[in-house]
TrEMBL record:
Keyword Zinc-finger: yes
Keywords, alphabetical: Coiled coil, Metal-binding, Zinc, Zinc-finger
Source organism superkingdom: Bacteria
Gene3D superfamilies linked to this entry: DksA, coiled-coil domain (1.20.120.910)
Residue ranges of domain Zinc finger DksA/TraR C4-type in the record: 94-123
Pfam families tied to this protein: zf-dskA_traR
Coiled-coil stretches: 18-45
Entries under PROSITE patterns matching the protein: ZF_DKSA_2
Source organism per UniProt: Aquimarina rubra
Name of the protein this chain belongs to: TraR/DksA family transcriptional regulator
Keyword Thylakoid carried by entry: no
Zinc finger regions, dksA C4-type: 98-122
């Protein structure tokens, strides 16, 4: 039996996946910047002269929005980091190989979730 050759995606396939990832990363980076500016913004809408009840309500809403934006930003930062790691795997030519089974991840899955490191088979084993 021939030596066990590790199967990988062709350079052409890797270039296609790289284009998808770069496009998603640019959008993700813009979204992250918007989220960061939203939660770093002091949000003072000039309600100082309105009734105390309305001001208290708005401050509560503002706090909730900042917390929600912070959570979204954290998730977005992780997404950007995952995409950067996927680009590293493309450079190393290990992209698209399931880290559990060692088999190629379905290309349709990679087009939808380009930072995936698990095949559906491996993901189902975790459940």
């Amino acid at each position: 039996m021939a030596a066990d050759v590790k199967v990988r995606y062709s350079d052409a396939d890797l270039a296609m996946f790289k284009a998808i990832i770069v496009e998603k990363m640019e959008k993700a980076q813009k979204d992250l910047e918007l989220l960061q500016s939203a939660y770093k913004n002091d949000g003072n809408n000039g309600t100082d002269d309105t009734s105390p009840t309305f001001k208290a309500f708005e401050e509560g809403s503002e706090t909730m929005s900042k917390e929600a934006n912070t959570q979204l930003a954290i998730r977005q930062e992780k997404f950007v980091r995952d995409l950067k790691n996927a680009l590293l795997r493309i450079e190393n030519k290990t992209y698209g190989i399931c880290r559990v089974t060692g088999k190629l991840i379905n290309p349709e899955r990679l087009k939808l979730v380009p930072h995936a490191t698990l095949s559906i088979e491996a993901k189902n084993m975790q459940s």
